Amino acid sequence: MVVDIALKKILTDASKDDINDNVVSIIPKPVVCSICKSDNVITDPESGEIICSQCGMVISDKIQETRQDSRTFLNSEQAKDRRRTGMPTSLANADMGLSTVIAKTDKDASGYEIQPSMLSTMHRLRTWDFRTQVHTSTDRNLKFAFNELHTLKHKLGLPDAIIEKTAYIYRKAQERGFARGRSVSAVLTAAVYISCRELGIPKTLKEIAEANNIRRKIVAKCYRILISELDIKTLRLDPMKCIVKVANKANLNERTKRHAIDVMNIVTQKAISTGKNPMGLAATVLYISSIKTGEHKTQRDIAQAAGITDVTLRNVYKNLQDKLQLN
Q1: What are the CA-CA distances from residue 41 to residues 29, 66, 129, 244, 276 (Å)?
Q2: Domain 138-229 belongs to what topology?
């Protein structure tokens, strides 16, 4: 009888452990497209996008890690709970997300109302806590700069990787004293442009400067200073990525885009693209492809979509016409 009771207890404890393990290892639901209701998705690790393979819709532009953390705890009771808690740290925050926050509530952790005398003390502590977070000029500078960075993020639709890289470059510039005596907006805009160049995002300096309402000449000067002083090696903008961007702005069809990609491959193989403006080269290739496919687009329409002048497009077109022997 005693053996049976002990055996039942062992089986009950084992079943509880199995249930806990199953709860921890729950597999998240598959991602489903909201248009075609298909679960066949493609994950692009470079752009951070989840794309439906049926209709091509971008389901999400932020890939998140959904698996549980595997951490080591001191005792076995804590080891069963592997849930991730707290906000993630970020360089794009002035305090990197590590500061404490006193909530604006009139109840304590148990749900009871706080006494009025203690409530006034909490309000006072909250005020001093906010003031101590921006005590020095460096903290105030970072807070102002990163607030502007998040505004610029929504204007240009930049991914989180660009924001983190920009915050890293700006912190380095501030540590070495390059941001002192210069406009915060200009240095921040130059850092955004450097991040886009390093990660291969087709954003021009003029486009980023206009989004932040700064003159291009001032941003270009800060860009050259950051490149030389911080010893940053930026990559050349890929003309192939500029094709899709210019084509979408000019409202060109898919046939013209594919033809332009084929022409750009020929231009790259023959090393004709060396030393040319990537946006100007992409606009010229799209103009050539629009003529071949019969899509009527003027030089001015494509040049405005690429942010270049008509003269630049005509000069590149004459060069390609001679080297590619276009009719």
Answers
A1: 13, 16, 46, 21, 37
A2: Cyclin A; domain 1 (1.10.472)
Q: What is the pLDDT of residue 22?
A: 44
Q: Which residue has the tokens 């954003």?
A: 203
Per-residue model confidence (pLDDT) at position 26 = 43
- Yes or no: say if 173 and 179 are a contact pair by the CB < 8 Å rule: yes
What is 239-324's CATH number, 3.40.190.80, 1.10.3720.10, 3.40.50.261, 1.10.472.10? 1.10.472.10
3-state secondary structure of 169: helix
Contact present, 49 and 41 (Cβ < 8 Å) = no
- The secondary element (H helix, E strand) that includes residue 41 is strand 41-44
In the chain, domain spans: 138-229, 239-324
Structure-block tokens of residue 289: 């492809």
Whole-angstrom Cα distance, residue 219 to residue 233?
18
pLDDT of amino acid 237: 77
Task: Compute φ and ψ for 317, nearest 5 degrees.
Answer: -65, -40
Please tell me the pTM assigned to this model.
Answer: 0.63
278 touches 239 (CB < 8 A): yes
Q: How far is CA 228 from the centre of its chain?
A: 25
CA dihedral in degrees (99, 165, 241, 153; nearest 10)? 40
Degrees to nearest 5, angle at CA 203 with 287 and 158: 130
SS3 107: strand
